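Ligand: protoporphyrin IX containing FE. Inputs:
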Amino acid sequence: MNTLAVLLWGAFPYVALASFVIGSIWRYKYDKFGWTTRSSELYERRLLRVASPLFHFGILVVLVGHVIGLLIPQTWTRAIGLSENAYHFLAVALGTVAGACTLIGIALLIYRRRTVGPVFLATTRNDKLMYVVLTLTIVLGLTATVDANIIGSGYNYRTTISPWFRSIFAFQPETSLMAGAPLVYRIHALCALTLFTIWPYTRLVHVLTAPIGYLTRPYIVYRSRDLRGARGTRPTRRGWEPTRPPTA
Ligand code: HEM
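Predicted complex:
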């Protein structure tokens, strides 16, 4: 048995899974107040208003595509009357559009982060690492889809990558299946595993707790207090209100 294949496709997935689960629990327990997107909406809104929904709706469709493509066996989709050709056409069409939206979205988000001064200043080293791994994963996924299916004559990952992915959760990893997949798919999967490994220690934790309405909620509007229009009869003083001694 090839040792490298066992390490990459038999051991690394469990390291990533353990880091993802244990790291998330640890972070939630010990850094509840740091569990945030660290939103930069306050600094810049014009670009964010386009880039953020583009990225988030794109990645959501990509995620649904991955759940169907990796978790649902080919025999099941065939059993409900969906032929391999029809599945392939739908997956490639939707996957390419969603992948392109995700890529354009993240490119705009990175451009904004680099060019808007306060947003750049609020970017940590940890963010930069996360952006690199996330972008690489997206670029490689899209390259695999376009290269194999649009430029090339097609690659049925549901006979190799998908059963390997499911075998991880059955605790019997079939490493040889993955070792035989095309290189770009393998590097894509390795980048994804790296992303899952670092996930709990980055701002990506917000994905685990994002409420359903988060993506469509209106933007939060911050207003300064309008003193002239303040209601009430008592005139408002400048500065802090003096504290009163507690009444008995
Ligand atoms: C171990 C986990 C993962 C595996 C095994 C995997 C595997 C795949 C496969 C087989 C494809 C389809 C290529 C084709 O159409 O022939 C794909 C596409 C893609 N992947 Fe992944 N992927 C994983 C995780 C991720 C993650 C975490 C992201 C994003 C952060 C991602 C982003 C993409 C994108 C953007 C595409 C192209 C669009 C699409 O087909 O949906 N993948 N991936």
